[in-house]
Amino acid sequence: MWWPAWLAAGLTWACGAGAGRPAPLCASRGLCRAPLSPNASHPQLEADLCAWAFSSESLVDPFPMDVIQENYIRNVRNCIFSIVYPTPFQSRVRLVAVSKEALENVLDLDISVKETPEFLQFVSGGNVIIGSVPLAHRYGGHQFGSWAGQLGDGRAHLIGVYTNRHGERWELQLKGSGKTPYSRSGDGRAVLRSSVREYLCSEAMHYLGIPTSRAVSLVVSDDDVWRDQFYNGNVKKERGAIVLRLAKSWFRIGSLEILAHSGELHLQRRLLDFIIQEHFPSIAMNNSDRYLEFFSTVTSETANLIALWMSVGFAHGVCNTDNFSLLSITIDYGPFGFMDSYDPDFVPNTSDDERRYRIGNQANVGLFNLNKLLQALKPLLDPRQKQLASQILEGYAEHYHSRFTELFKAKLGLLGENEDDNYLIAFLLKLMEDTKADFTMTFRQLSDITEEQLKELHIPEEFWALQDLSKHKLFSEWVTMYLLRLSCNKGDSDTKRRARMTAVNPRYILRNWMAESAVQKANWNDFSEVRLLQQILEDPFQSQQAAEKAGYSLRPPAWAKDLKVSCSS
Ligand code: AMP
Ligand code: MG
């Protein structure tokens, strides 16, 4: 264990208020109100935040810490983290949304905890909890193809680690919680609109079955935050918000890159060993090829993640290496977008002038990012391992294509193997591209329509996406080929096919217009649509009355076409 004297002092402080810093939450029982009665139906859930076990030790102990304690913007060296406290908002804060499932099933907290003042303090960065040593992570990254040097958590605080009743280790992070040494020219804050989007989308992705960070809570303040939303000189006052988000690990490709770039190889090895030990249990620590195995896993899992994104029409928007998780989960939601009409050139981020992160380029960008990871690992590899690592990278395309095919075959309800499957998928995507058919609803309506209806080319009016698709002159040709292929499914029936397909083709996704509508209302302190969307997106494959009433499975409204999302957040 590495304990500089000042850090030991910091930890002592964490158990009692220190000069100029917020008092730790629940430092004594006196600060807490009487414990809430435990939930009888879930006796294992904790209703009292003060009794909740939480710690930063597993991140603080293994690494040397930034030796400077003051919170000012600087170039940091020889550490993985800086200890820095969240900056509480100056004004009133309100808890406006909570993910019950994340609270209960990830954090073992009873939902009633959300009513307590301690919880509001906790999730708004107003106070740290006993055992928490808030950290900002030092990382770098390639942004839009170029090395950007030190980036780091400029507005996020890793407030600790929780190991839940399932034995899972989760890292808790506040986003929008104030300046850190890595804030560069930023104010350390996140505005309400981007926080609503991250909160909703990370949970929506979880329920779509896509590896992702989670969101527990959304807090809004009355603090002014100034943003030039579209970088056109129109600076406007917005409100600061904080999302409490969770990931098994927040380490990114950029976490290793910065250490390689600054020649801190000893520390890089330490970080890599830590990540492997904590998060890659199948890799033996005494295996001299462990970095190679690590690279191999990250390569295949990144391919898997991007194929999954493509399977739901998700474009991340800012696929920089600092936004690519080493655990291959979706992190750092910014100007993301789910495409409406199928378009391989769909770019969700209006600030992305080069269209680098268009949806159809994400797989290539994944390869670019993995290549940057390999460059960062190379100083730790011998010549034989370097050569093998290059071969692993060459296998990325194959991993991606086979996963993509597998997912799209499932979307079409295809069983078994057929050499024309890729052609059938590509043919459909081409028809969708030509007719601008809606990506999500084309697949969903193919899941709902009967083989009989398809055979007769009878597309009921409510199948609006299929109606669009059917305008293509080659539609009937594709349908014939599809029906023929379905007839090769062994032991299948039309009912079974439709059940399989509706289980993988969502009816509801977080379309831009839906997020925008929720944001507009939230700006007027009406969080009803945030909550409605959250509830609906928890069951995206199931038709729901409230969602149908809200028009969430209908053709996107005309104004959706003019919506713009930028990097400003
Ligand atoms: P992002 O594009 O949100 O992934 O952020 C890229 C980098 O900019 C990261 O290092 C962030 O911490 C930092 N950053 C973004 N917005 C802010 C902000 N408002 N204040 C401080 N740092 C920020
Ligand atoms: Mg980021």
What does this entry show, briefly?
By secondary structure, the protein is an alpha+beta fold. The chain has 20 helices and 12 strands.
How would you characterize this protein structure?
This protein is α+β, with helices and mostly antiparallel strands. It folds into three domains: 5-250, no CATH class; 279-405, no CATH class; 415-502, no CATH class. 38% of the residues lie in helices and 12% in strands. The longest helix is centred in the middle third of the chain and has 22 residues, at 290-311. Mean pLDDT is 93; it is low at 1-20 and 27-37. The chain binds adenosine monophosphate (AMP) and magnesium ion. Adenosine monophosphate is lined by residues 151-155, 182-184, 186-189, 318, 323, 332, 334.
Structure characteristics:
569 residues; binds magnesium ion; 38% helix; 20 helices; 12 strands; six-stranded antiparallel beta sheet; single chain; two-stranded antiparallel sheet; alpha+beta; globular
